[in-house]
Automatic annotation (TrEMBL):
InterPro entries: Acyl_CoA_acyltransferase (IPR016181), GNAT_dom (IPR000182), Trichothecene_AcTrans (IPR052523). Gene3D superfamilies: 3.40.630.30. It comes from Alcanivorax borkumensis (strain ATCC 700651 / DSM 11573 / NCIMB 13689 / SK2). This is N-acetyltransferase domain-containing protein. Residues 67-215 form the N-acetyltransferase domain. Transmembrane segments: none annotated. One of its GO terms (molecular function) is acyltransferase activity, transferring groups other than amino-acyl groups.
Amino acid sequence: MLRLSQPDISDMPTTQPPLNDLAHVFSRAFFHDPLFEYFFADPSQRQALAFFTFRFLVAHARHNGQVDTTPQPVDDHNSLNGAAVWLPSSAIEHSVIDMLRFGAVRALFKQGPGAIKRQMVAADAMQAVHHRVLTTPHMYLLLLGIDPSQQGRGLSTPLLQPSLDLFDQQGLPCYLDTHNPNNVSLYQRFGFEVVHEGDIPGTSVQHWAMLRQCKSRA
């Protein structure tokens, strides 16, 4: 198992939006994501089932990393409209204790073993690429999601740029995975470059791994 030293995240702003609200935003934002279409093929169940995956991922990240949010009115309510979830490279892998603590058992019960297996196979494939591409301390953009009703309003910048600036100050590169071709150009605007492109083995789901080198301070 690859073990990397823990980057300093002590200077990051702390936000604690409701966990379920975050999971719901991500389950809506990723409804048409090719990877989640593969995980949960039935569109009538996808959002409800994906909720448990995102709840687990965000619960783990809130304990081990950073969740950045930009609250804005959604449907005339002052609701959460999007979030970016970051993990330090030392906290990317999930231990058995993590799975028990943050809701993996509940996800198994709700989603069934087939969906869990699909997620584990995809996660293993992405992790293999990740470990091959980058072995020094860095930050991992686990999730970026914006409520569909708020997409196209430029919210990616306030969600990403403050943390990217902080990681530059700390000398940390950043890494991410995406499976939506529309996201590649978005992340390129923030300085990420494609370092791997291919299919998740055994599927037709495309996978892009992207790396952003630390920007030197002037």
